Give the backbone structure.
Amino acid sequence: MKYNITDIAKLAGVSKATVSRVLNNSKPVSDEIRSRVLEVVKETNFKPSQLARSLSSKQTKLIGVIVPDISNPVFSQIINGIEVEAYKKGYNVLLCNSNNKEDTELNYLEVLLNKEIDGLIYNGFKITDNLKLKLKEFHVPVVMTGIGEEQSNFPVIKIDNFKAANDAVSFLIQKGHKKIGMIHGPVNDPLSGKLRLEGYYQALKDNNLEVEKNFIQEGNYKISSGYKSMTNILSLVEKPTAIFCANDEMAIGAIKCIIDHGYKVPNDYSIIGFDNIELSEIYSPSLTTISQSFYNEGESAMRVIISMLNKDKHIPKEIVHDHKLIERETVKKI
Amino acid sequence: MKYNITDIAKLAGVSKATVSRVLNNSKPVSDEIRSRVLEVVKETNFKPSQLARSLSSKQTKLIGVIVPDISNPVFSQIINGIEVEAYKKGYNVLLCNSNNKEDTELNYLEVLLNKEIDGLIYNGFKITDNLKLKLKEFHVPVVMTGIGEEQSNFPVIKIDNFKAANDAVSFLIQKGHKKIGMIHGPVNDPLSGKLRLEGYYQALKDNNLEVEKNFIQEGNYKISSGYKSMTNILSLVEKPTAIFCANDEMAIGAIKCIIDHGYKVPNDYSIIGFDNIELSEIYSPSLTTISQSFYNEGESAMRVIISMLNKDKHIPKEIVHDHKLIERETVKKI
DNA sequence: CTGTTAGCGCCTTCAA
DNA sequence: TTGAAGGCGCTAACAG
């Protein structure tokens, strides 16, 4: 049997209002009545309907989360951080996987709008006009992770992508490499795409190294695109000795490509990645890369959403997390 | 401004009921009134509250999904299948990641109960008594994927694990291997754990090969446990020439371990995995394994839930998907 | 075909 | 401290 608040009230011989007060600790209730109500609640295993509660309280305790690719370990870690933090604070996550398709993403945004979520955490690679338009319809807090734009009004959780890319390339230079290529992400992705590429340029410039256009390839963060970009690089007459990849997956793809062509990493080519996904440690050879804590970023995103929900005074415009270089086996001193 | 159905009714000069009928196509409405209502809906950009709708219609259009590990590619593929199918049918997924912790799982089940989901898809490794108890409280359809038990009343989506394991081991035997080890999963996992182990035994038996207890190690499906189990095997005086791993991650761990000990795959040891996750193709050497389509399994799970929701006559007790052996680089003929 | 009237289950004034 | 009553926004049964 499924009980409702009226049943409980009757069984306890009190009014619905009193039951509600006991359940929510919203108003003082005498100890005697309180325990009587709790007794009945326990006996009947009564669970108040979140639905009805949401309808009258105007909050769903649901946070929408949009990710472009749930099978990408980067996002599953972010989600994990979001989820654990949400759970702690009594929120739940409505997860939407856009599969890298803009229209799926817009559809989901529409769904989330109808579901009357309390807040939205947006993860993605690029911010399109349609997206901006849609986001305007949300009258709830929105936070972005790993992506953002100058004029955005939404708080952003990120790392210093420019600096991190610069660190990676500087490390290669310090290891004696002078001909350094890069496989970067889409440049319409303002953070991981554009800034990492700029960090690369800056490091070359700071060390008076020339930019060789052919050494620079654009990928889409997938393993396969790393493979393909590396194929292009290997077909050059003059080749780089080291390649900086804007994420670990492209780095793995590049390594696989190098191996398939009969060369060795790092003996023939040095590779440095970005993100430090689990695979980078397990791959053989294990990948030298830039590490960032996606879990913590997810956590931060959720915290910011909650403080916005609480109408806290100080809402950060952005939160910049740390990164560090993890040296493993794919970069050789020359 | 946020409109509600009453506003729309007033603006269109009709009753709320009529607006509702237009929006849901639930009852005939004259063309003229219909278009007048739709006009207003468009102008106001009105979105009916799912919340209120759910409260009065007694369905939330929400399907709860429990997974033990969202960063495990197996589950992210299943989720993908579930999600795409759900979306097609107008449902949404409330995803809960238990992180392999039983109490987190039980907590989430409780949350889902309160959220009044329309159905539940359970993914996990083992079915505990607490879980069974909790599941009893659900008065909505429940489907399981990749797990199940004899006496369960819930439909199960799976592959023929016994046959698949048998195929894998038979393949090794056919390649000339006689000393074959196995790294299996927890045996209290009735499908992937127990049945894959039994398939292994059966293949040995069918070929009159002896079971060598030391060749058999138990892992927990993680890369690290494959590594550890392989360490044990390598420490034996007499070693197997091939190892069947109950999933790809343990297989990768085992390979990494072999390489770290200065041996080669498949020259010194042959390895066969199970699941055909993306990594198995990318790893170097690429992994020979048993492939199954997790995406399709997720899709099936959602379809079964929906037909249960529709109270279809014929609800399958179980759906068995195909598997196949993918030969790559980790098994050598001897 | 359309409108009126009750709920759905809970929370929250307002009075007592 | 407690109860009665109204309302959240929508659907559905019942009239007309």
